[in-house]
Amino acid sequence: MDLNLILVCVVIAVALFFSYTNGFHDAANAIATSVSTRAWTPRAALLMAAAMNVIGAMMGTAVAKTVGQGIISISRYAESTQAEMQHKGLVIILAALLGACVWNLITWWFGLPSSSSHALIGGLVGAGIVSSTAVHWQGILDHVIIPMFASPIIGFVVGYFVMHCVLRLLRNAQYHRTMRRFRAAQRFSSAAMALGHGIQDAQKTMGIIIMALVAGGYGQTHQIYDPVTGDMTVPMWVKISGALAISLGTMAGGGRIMRTIGRKIIDLDPARGFTAEAVSSSILYLCSYVVHAPISTTQVVSTAIMGVGCTRRFSAVRWGVAGNIVVAWFLTLPAAAAVSAVLYWVAAWIVGV
Question: Mind telling me which residue stretches traverse the membrane in this protein (predicted)?
Answer without folding.
Answer: 46-68, 89-110, 144-170, 236-254, 321-347
